[in-house]
């Protein structure tokens, strides 16, 4: 178990290169950063800057070409495939721009899905699904399929799914990208509330205004590297 | 993931592409059905052949001869015995008969009784061959379509006629219940009182009641040198003390007791025949049983079954390609879903098992439907064959048999083939990169 003073996320000289024929694409190149527990960090950058790649590495969906990612004191590179899957279902929750709910399942079934993989006893699941949906204000929509829900409702559903196994780290990749500004604000308010309850959040966004309003710290990425350009709000910092 | 969750998810996924999965399952069912139909025909034919042979009783019977009279039927044994004289061979006499009767699993031992006789019926006479039958011959298939009945007891003065012979002595008039007289030569003791000293031949007559008429000789006459035309209880035949060809040899061999040309040994179960045959051989006699001949038949059916399995498996092989195709299509269609599952915590093994469960479910359903379909095809073939038999005035037969082990084996095989077919798609789904899958639109 990680010591309380350990950072939630520690990335050390992390690179992720892709080979495209003879060309090597450096999606991420020697990035080091630290996220403290309880922080709400925004990863900012233009399209192709490597922010989603970094989020996927922290989320255990991908492995770095070099460097190490340590979450809650556990180095992800040391984990076998099965351990990494356990890490994804128990330690982190992920929220995507495209919501990524399974269209053939109802909202309740979608929220229940991570508990199936975590082998949560069946009789405990119903209550956990109901409380997760109530937490995001969707208690009445449990039986609806994603196609019957609005974009905002789907995203709140996906947050409920990300929270149901009680992770310590919430990773959100452009969660408001497919939503209008009012609905986007509702989602961000929800995430802010979760952060106030102690949840560590890493948010990937290209919208500076959202980062400024909700995140406690900004990290800029450009061409796969941390960017050292000064920020206007003064709430962001540049890692060495 | 727990087994229940895996099966529920697999079932849900299968329901999503109902038509395609049903067609794939139907493909497995047709493959399994062809295999089951062909194999059940092979098994049925074998069972039919065995049934007929068993009912004829030949597998329960071991014929015993004295080495003095017959060389061994076994060529190796014959070669090794070549230099030995037959003079001191074990005589096949009453003592030997008692000894054989005491062997385990032997039900009865009776002498091969067969002799020439003059048959007198309504003033006309002709020569023919009489054979003695034990009471156990009642179960022989020769009596299935017999007229009249079998002997009322082991000592009854009753005779069963062979149909051709019956027609010869009385082409039109019914024979059952009528009397027939046999004239024969009896071997009788000389005045000295013992047969060892020689014997007298006396002309005798004995009257029998005709109780039955059979189409063919019971036991098919496989062990005889001349076909019998009249059959009387073997006990009666023995007591008649008819002069046998062996009597002359008994007379010239000084001190020889009366011997049998051959004894027929019946065992309770055909599977005991081999052991009894070996035990009798050890006693110093030559034996013969139909088991030797049946080995060739078993080899034939083994080869036939193998051929049918190979032929039937082609359908299953085609069906397995269908499963691979369906599951690969499912990966393409559910690429994003697999990515989502992995992102929220499904392990590679979970994804793999899910695809295996889907393959196994299709295999199980296909196997079960296939067995039912194969069973139905077999029924139709059997009905068609028997319809044809009926047109040819032949009795109905069952050529087709689906034993329980075939039902179980076909379903298990369908599941195994489906799982093997699922190997590649499952591995491919498990290896799917979630980042790529979630990027996919």
In round numbers, the mean pLDDT of chain B is 83
**Mean pLDDT figure of chain A:** 90
CATH class designation of chain A:
Alpha Beta
Q: In total, how many beta strands of chain A?
A: 10
- Which residue ranges of chain A are poorly predicted, with pLDDT under 50 across at least 5 consecutive positions? 230-240
Q: Supply the CATH superfamily name of chain A.
A: P-loop containing nucleotide triphosphate hydrolases
Structure explained in plain terms:
Chain A: One of its GO terms (molecular function) is transmembrane transporter activity. Chain A: Residues 9-239 form the ABC transporter domain. Chain A: Keywords: ATP-binding, Nucleotide-binding, Transport. Chain A: Pfam families: ABC_tran. Chain A: InterPro entries: AAA+_ATPase, ABC_transporter-like_ATP-bd, ABC_transpr_LolD-like, MacB-like_ATP-bd, P-loop_NTPase. Chain B: Its main location: membrane. The complex is a heterodimer of chains A (240) and B (441). By secondary structure, chain A is an alpha/beta fold. Chain A has a single domain (38-60, 79-226), classed as P-loop containing nucleotide triphosphate hydrolases (Rossmann fold, 3-Layer(aba) Sandwich), CATH 3.40.50.300. Helix content of chain A is 33%, strand content 25%. Chain A has seven helices and ten strands. Chain A has a six-stranded mixed β-sheet, with helices on both faces. In chain A, strands 2-1-4-5 form a four-stranded antiparallel β-sheet. The model of chain A is unreliable at 230-240 (pLDDT under 50). Chain B is α+β, with helices and mostly antiparallel strands and 441 residues long. Chain B has two domains: 3-54 and 297-439, no CATH class; 60-290, no CATH class. A six-stranded mixed beta barrel of chain B has the order 3-4-9-6-8-7. Chain B has a four-stranded antiparallel β-sheet with strand order 2-10-1-11. The two termini of chain B are 27 Å apart. The mean pLDDT of chain B is 83. The interface between A and B is medium-sized, with 29 and 25 residues.
């Amino acid at each position: 178990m990680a010591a309380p003073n350990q950072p939630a996320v520690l990335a050390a000289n992390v690179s992720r290169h892709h080979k495209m024929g003879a060309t090597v694409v450096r999606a991420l190149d020697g990035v080091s950063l630290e996220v403290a527990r309880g922080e709400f960090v925004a990863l900012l950058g233009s399209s192709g800057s490597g922010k989603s790649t970094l989020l996927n590495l922290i989320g255990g969906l991908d492995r770095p070409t070099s460097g190490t990612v340590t979450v809650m004191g556990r180095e992800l590179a040391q984990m076998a495939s099965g351990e990494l899957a356990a890490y994804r279902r128990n330690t982190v929750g992920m929220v995507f721009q495209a919501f990524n709910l399974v269209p053939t399942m109802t909202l309740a079934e979608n929220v229940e899905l991570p508990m199936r993989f975590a082998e949560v006893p069946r009789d405990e699941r119903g209550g956990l699904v109901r409380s997760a949906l109530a937490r995001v204000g969707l208690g009445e929509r449990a039986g609806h399929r994603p196609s019957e829900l609005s974009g905002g409702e789907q995203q709140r559903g996906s947050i409920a799914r990300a929270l149901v196994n009680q992770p310590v780290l919430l990773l959100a990749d452009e969660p408001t990208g497919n939503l209008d500004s009012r609905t986007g604000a509702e989602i961000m308010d929800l995430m802010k509330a979760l952060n106030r309850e102690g949840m560590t959040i890493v948010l990937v966004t290209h919208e500076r205004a959202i980062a400024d309003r909700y995140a406690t710290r900004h990290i800029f990425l450009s061409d796969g590297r941390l960017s050292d350009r000064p920020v206007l709000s003064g709430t962001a910092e540049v890692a060495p | 993931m727990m087994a229940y969750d895996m099966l529920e998810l697999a079932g849900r996924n299968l329901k999503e592409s109902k038509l395609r999965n049903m067609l794939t399952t139907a493909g497995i069912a047709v493959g399994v059905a062809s295999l089951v139909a062909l194999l059940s025909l092979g098994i049925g034919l074998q069972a039919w052949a065995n049934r007929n042979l068993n009912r004829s009783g030949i597998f329960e019977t071991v014929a015993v001869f004295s080495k003095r009279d017959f060389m061994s039927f076994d060529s190796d044994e014959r070669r090794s015995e070549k230099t030995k004289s037959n003079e001191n061979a074990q005589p096949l006499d009453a003592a030997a008969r008692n000894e054989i009767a005491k062997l385990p699993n032997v039900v009865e031992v009776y002498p091969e009784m067969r002799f020439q006789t003059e048959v007198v019926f309504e003033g006309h006479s002709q020569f023919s061959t009489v054979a003695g039958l034990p009471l156990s011959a009642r179960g022989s298939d020769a009596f299935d379509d017999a007229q009249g009945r079998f002997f009322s007891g082991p000592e009854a003065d009753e005779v069963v006629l062979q149909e051709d012979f019956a027609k010869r002595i009385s082409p039109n008039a019914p024979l059952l219940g009528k009397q027939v007289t046999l004239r024969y030569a009896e071997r009788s003791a000389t005045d000295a009182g013992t047969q060892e000293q020689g014997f007298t031949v006396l002309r005798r007559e004995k009257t029998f009641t005709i109780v039955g008429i059979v189409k063919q000789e019971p036991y098919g006459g496989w062990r005889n040198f001349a076909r019998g035309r009249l059959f009387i209880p073997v006990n009666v035949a023995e007591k008649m003390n008819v002069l046998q060809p062996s009597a002359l040899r008994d007379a010239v061999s000084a001190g020889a007791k009366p011997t049998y040309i051959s004894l027929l040994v019946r065992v309770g179960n055909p599977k005991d025949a081999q052991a009894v045959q070996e035990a009798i051989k050890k006693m110093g006699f030559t034996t013969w049983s139909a088991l030797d001949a049946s080995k060739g038949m078993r080899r034939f059916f083994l080869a036939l079954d193998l051929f049918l399995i190979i032929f039937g498996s082609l359908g299953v092989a085609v069906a397995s390609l269908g499963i691979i195709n369906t599951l690969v299509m499912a990966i393409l269609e559910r690429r994003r879903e697999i990515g989502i599952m992995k992102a929220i915590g499904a392990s590679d093994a979970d994804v793999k098992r899910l695809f295996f469960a889907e393959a196994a479910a299709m295999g199980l359903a296909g196997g079960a439907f296939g067995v039912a379909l194969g069973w139905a095809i077999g029924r139709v073939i059997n009905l068609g064959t028997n319809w044809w038999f009926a047109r040819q005035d032949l009795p109905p037969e069952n050529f087709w048999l689906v034993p329980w082990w075939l039902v179980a084996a076909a379903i298990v095989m369908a599941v195994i083939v489906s799982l093997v077919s699922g190997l590649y798609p499952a591995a491919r789904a498990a290896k799917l990169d979630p980042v790529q899958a979630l990027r996919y639109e």
